[in-house]
């Protein structure tokens, strides 16, 4: 036994003694735990609402107020307009990138709840700032919009860093994937609701202001619920040597479960063991992220977060109205349909994520996404049609319709696979002591990909070249980054308790989580 233990770090001499709590029955959901998890995943709606505000940049009244040329149906925006409008998401995502590391540090030192409160407050201030843009000085309107997005972006960095982490720490293991997928589901709800609001207010002169203002409503709800009802994460409490508070939180979360006293005690023992092991390994510093299995977790989490954006999702999320308008379709109607498909498809992900597993979902999703882009390219090149130029030609209209249909196919694939998995894997990959910091690095990677590929790269490349060239770049990027990440960097973590995740990222027996039990 001793000789084997020396060569296999996955084998623990205390395994027999530990089996009573590593394999014990988990707590079940009760009203309090469901409420806490709901508030955590509901935070996703804030990010979703902001993504939905991208369609505001196509509203005629908004463009008039900001001095931006109105887009003519069937014609793309000029490259100058594309560059100006691209600043709308870019500024938000740059400040999200800047806010994420602060959120990680604060959450590891002061807890998850303070970060949630700061996030909702900043997001609310940013929303009202944009509502008031141009009222005092119209010439300052566009600058005021961007400044509001700076403030909201910092809040978003806090939201994306801590909300999935907090939800994963509160959820029982068998519901963890579904819980974080629900966070993505609320993002899609926010996107759809904002698109619906903009669709209904497109012809109202002040409609775009109301669109920005709506974002404050869920912010206030999150602030109130967090202050009054939410528990601090038991894992954070144990990390800060507040075991008595952790016991109280676990008992509230486990209330109503069979043998709730034993269930809460065993979960506390698992957390204490994991925290003790990580304390022995380091002091929870930033440097610790680059050591041992933590680096494997970091490489996986950051690569998955980055690759989620390389797939091209925010090319369609941010610029769908411009794309549909350039193709000669009703921009707000088709954008609304796209966001609805995105929302409904995410429900499928909630149902299958704990059955199929994380790795299988993104491997098959990646292959399907690449095939969609290849088919788009083959059809455009094979027919020789310039899909952004409107003529009475029936072949051109057929190809344009086909291209729009493939955008919807892509959206379904993404919503079922990369949409939720892009948050699940980073949120559950890191040990407790560096979970906040690790997630913040993953969000930074996500925003770098968002800016490089979603906000600027694909759309601006399409503006100065052709759709065929853009599709070639998209395909190559997906093969190089997305496929490589899905196949080679992601172990399966379905059904693994958070405290055993570091073992999985030791890639014991090929990274098979079952082999590490």
TrEMBL record:
Tell me what this protein is called. Answer: Hexose transporter 1
The terms under GO molecular function for this entry are: carbohydrate:proton symporter activity
Q: Could you say which protein family the record assigns here?
A: Belongs to the major facilitator superfamily. Sugar transporter (TC 2.A.1.1) family.
| Position of the signal peptide | none
Using the UniProt record, give the first listed, main subcellular location: membrane
Which PROSITE patterns does the entry link to?
MFS, SUGAR_TRANSPORT_1, SUGAR_TRANSPORT_2
Family matches, as SUPFAM superfamilies: MFS general substrate transporter
Q: Which organism does this record belong to?
A: Mucochytrium quahogii
Judging by the UniProt lineage, the source's domain of life is: Eukaryota
Which Pfam family, giving just one, matches this sequence?
Sugar_tr
Its quaternary organisation is:
Homodimer.
């Amino acid at each position: 036994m001793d000789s084997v233990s020396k060569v296999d770090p996955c084998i623990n001499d205390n395994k027999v003694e530990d089996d009573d709590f590593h394999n014990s029955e988990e707590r079940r959901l009760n009203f309090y735990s469901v409420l806490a998890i709901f508030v955590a995943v509901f935070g996703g709606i804030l990010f979703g609402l902001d993504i939905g505000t991208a369609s505001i940049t196509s509203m005629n009244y908004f463009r008039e107020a900001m001095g931006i040329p109105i887009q003519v149906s069937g014609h793309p925006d000029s490259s100058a307009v594309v560059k100006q409008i691209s600043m709308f998401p870019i500024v938000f995502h740059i400040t999200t990138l800047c806010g994420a590391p602060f959120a990680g540090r604060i959450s590891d030192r002061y807890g998850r709840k303070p970060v949630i409160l700061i996030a909702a407050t900043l997001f609310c201030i940013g929303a009202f700032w944009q509502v008031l843009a141009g009222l005092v000085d119209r010439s300052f309107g566009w600058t005021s919009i961007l400044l509001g997005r700076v403030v909201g972006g910092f809040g978003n960095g806090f939201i994306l860093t801590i909300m999935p982490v907090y939800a994963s720490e509160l959820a029982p293991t068998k519901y963890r994937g579904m819980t974080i997928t629900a966070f993505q589901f609320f993002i899609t709800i926010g996107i759809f609701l904002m698109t619906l609001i903009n669709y209904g207010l497109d012809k109202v002169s002040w409609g775009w202001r109301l669109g920005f203002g709506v974002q404050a409503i869920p912010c206030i709800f999150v602030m109130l619920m967090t202050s009054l009802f939410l528990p601090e994460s038991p894992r954070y409490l144990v990390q800060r040597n507040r075991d008595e508070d952790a016991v109280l939180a676990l008992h509230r979360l486990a209330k109503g479960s069979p043998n709730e006293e034993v269930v809460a005690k065993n979960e506390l023992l698992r957390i204490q063991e994991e925290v003790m092991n990580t304390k022995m390994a380091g002091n929870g510093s930033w440097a610790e992220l680059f050591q041992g299995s933590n680096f494997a977790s970091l490489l996986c989490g950051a690569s998955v977060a980055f690759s989620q954006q390389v797939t091209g999702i925010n090319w369609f999320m941010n610029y769908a109205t411009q794309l549909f308008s350039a193709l000669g379709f009703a921009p707000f109607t088709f954008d609304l349909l796209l966001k609805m498909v995105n929302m409904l498809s995410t429900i499928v992900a909630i149902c299958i994520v704990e059955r199929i597993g994380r790795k299988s979902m993104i491997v098959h999703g990646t292959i399907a996404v690449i095939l969609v882009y290849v088919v788009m390219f083959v059809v455009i090149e094979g027919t020789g049609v310039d899909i952004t130029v409107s003529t009475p030609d029936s072949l051109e209209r057929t190809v344009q319709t086909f291209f729009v249909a493939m955008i919807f196919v892509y959206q379904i694939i993404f919503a079922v696979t990369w949409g939720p998995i892009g948050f699940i894997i980073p949120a559950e990959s890191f040990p407790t002591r560096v979970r906040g910091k690790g997630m913040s690095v993953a969000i930074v990677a996500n925003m770098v990909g968002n800016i490089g590929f979603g906000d600027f790269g694909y759309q601006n490349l399409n503006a100065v070249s052709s759709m065929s060239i853009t599709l070639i770049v998209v395909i190559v990027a997906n093969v190089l980054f997305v496929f490589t990440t899905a196949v080679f960097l992601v172990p399966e973590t379905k059904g693994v308790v958070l405290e055993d995740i570091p073992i999985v990222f030791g890639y014991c027996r090929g990274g098979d989580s079952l082999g590490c039990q």
